[in-house]
Amino acid sequence: MCLGQIVIDLDRRIKCRGYCDHYCAYCGSLFRFDKRQSARFTHFNFFCQIVFLTLLLTRLWPQIFNSFGSYIGCPEGSEKNEYLCISLSVVYRVSLALVAVFAIVLYVTLSRDGGSMVCNEGCWFWKVLVFICTFFGMLFVNNENLGWFIDTSRILSIFFIFLQVCLLIDFFYTWGESWVRKYDEGAVEYKYYLLLFTVLLFVVVIYLFIRGLIWFSGDGCFWNVGVLVLNMILCTLLTGLSISNLVTKSSLLTSSAISAMIMTLTISALSSDNRTECNSLLGEDHNTLMIIEISVSIGLLMLVLGYLSLANDSNSTSTVGVVKELELKELPPGAEVEEAQFTDEYGQLRKVRTLRNVSDPNVWPDGEAGTLAAYKGKSFVMFQLLMLLAAFYFGVLLTNWGSIEMGTAGTDSYMPNDSAYWIKLSASWLTCLVYLWTMIAPRILPERFGSQRDSHHQLHEQA
C-alpha cells in the first residue's frame, strides 16, 4: 500500500480533520483564500505561533524548563548561565520538532496523490502530536548528542538564505509592479504611495549608512568602513541602473526596498564583529542589539513565508507551467486550452498556451482532475521544502548561527562571531548580484528572460 493511501485511510478512520481543519476553512472564508492558499496559510500560521511562543517562553519564563536541566546537560553555576543554556537548548529542540513535522509533510507531499492533499489540508492532530512528542522527547537528550543537528542546520540555512534573497527580490518586484500598474490603470492615489514609500526606504538606507559609520568605525577598523562605503556605492549604482534605458522592467520602489535590505544585512553583519573597538554596540547596548537583530531577521523570514503562503494561484492557473505539469491530461470540466500570440518589447513574436474557464480557483471540482490537480505539480512540494529549510534556519537564527557553546559556563544568548559576520555580509553581496542579474538578464538572454513578466500580465488580462 502506498504512503498516500495510508494517509487517506488514517484520515477516514480516525477523523483527523477536526478543529484545525475548521479553523483552516474559517481563515479561507475570512480572508477570501482559495483552498490551496488556506492549506499553505495554515502551515505558515502554525510556524508563526511556534516561533512567537518559543520567543515568549525562552526570553521571559525559561525557568519552566528547569526540571529538564540535568537531562539537557547545562552547566551548574550561576542561575543566569543555567537559564541561558536552557533557553538556547529549548530553541534547538523546537527547531528539531518543526523539522520533524515538515519533513513528514514533505515526504507525503512527494507522493502527489490523494494522500498529499489530505496531509496538506488536514491531519493537524497528527502534526501537532508529532511536534509535541519530538519536542518533549528531545528534552531528555543531552546537548552533546545534538551537535549533528546544529551543524546540519548551519549548512542548510545557507541554502535557505539564498532562496530567501531570491524570494524577497521577487516580492519587491511584485510590489513595485503592482502599484505602478494600478497607477497606470487610473488609481491616482498610488502615485503618492509610490513616492512616499520610495522616499522613506531611501531615508532608511541613508540612516543605516550614517549609523553604521558611527557604530562600526574606530582605530584599525578600515575594513568595516570600507564595507559600508562599498555597499552604499553598490546600492547607488543599482538604483541608477534600475532607472536607465538598459533596464526594461524595474521601479524606484523596488530599488529602494532592495537597497534597504542590502544595508540592513550589512549593519547586521557588522554588528557581529566581536572587536569592541570596531563595534560600539557591544557592552551596554548588547541587549538592544540582540532585540533589533532578532526582530529584523524574524520579520524578513515571516515576510518570505507569508509571501509564499498567500501567493495567488489564480494567475498561475492560466500560465504555461500548469498546462505542462498536467500534460493536458487532467483538465477541469469545461476548461479549454487556447494558444495566444503577442509581440514582446524586442519585436519578437511569442506563442503561449493558456487555460480558459479556470481563472477562479474556487471553481475547481472535487474530482481527481480538479482538487488533486494542484498537488500533482511542484508548488506544494516547493512550499513544504522551504518550510522545512525555514525550520532549520529558525534554530540558528535565534542563536546567531550557532555561536553558543551550550555546555560551558558563561553562555550568552546572542554573541557576535565570525561565522555570522561573513554569512550575513555574503548575503548582502548575493542580494546585489541577484538583483543585478534580474535587471540585465532580459538584455543578455532575451529569448530566455525577455518576456516572462510581460507574457504573465498579458495572459492575465486575456483570461
How would you characterize the overall build of this protein?
The chain has a two-stranded antiparallel sheet with strand order 1-2. The C terminus is likely disordered. The protein has 463 residues and is mainly alpha-helical. 68% of the residues lie in helices and 3% in strands. It is globular, with a radius of gyration of 24 Å.
The strand order across the widest sheet is 1-2
Shape assignment: globular
Question: How are helices and strands ordered from N to C?
Answer: HHHHHHHHHHHHHHEEHHHHH
Sheet of most strands: 2 strands, antiparallel
Q: Strand pairing plus helix content: what structural class? A: mainly alpha
Radius of gyration of CA atoms, rounded to a whole number: 24 Å
Rounded average pLDDT? 76
What's the N-to-C terminus distance?
41 Å
Oligomer: single chain
Strand tally is: 2
Summarize the structure.
This protein is mostly helical and 463 residues long. The chain has helices at 3-14, 19-30, 35-60, 69-72, 79-109, 114-121, 124-138, 147-184, 189-215, 222-242, 252-270, 286-309, 313-316, 320-326, 373-376, 379-397, 418-444, 446-449, 452-462, and strands at 336-343, 349-356.
Topology diagram in text:
Layout lengths: L2 H12 L4 H12 L4 H26 L8 H4 L6 H31 L4 H8 L2 H15 L8 H38 L4 H27 L6 H21 L9 H19 L15 H24 L3 H4 L3 H7 L9 E8 L5 E8 L16 H4 L2 H19 L20 H27 L1 H4 L2 H11 L1
Antiparallel strand pairs: 1-2
Helix pairs in contact: 1-6, 2-3, 3-5, 3-12, 3-16, 5-7, 5-16, 8-9, 8-11, 8-12, 8-16, 8-17, 9-10, 9-11, 10-11, 10-17, 11-17, 12-16
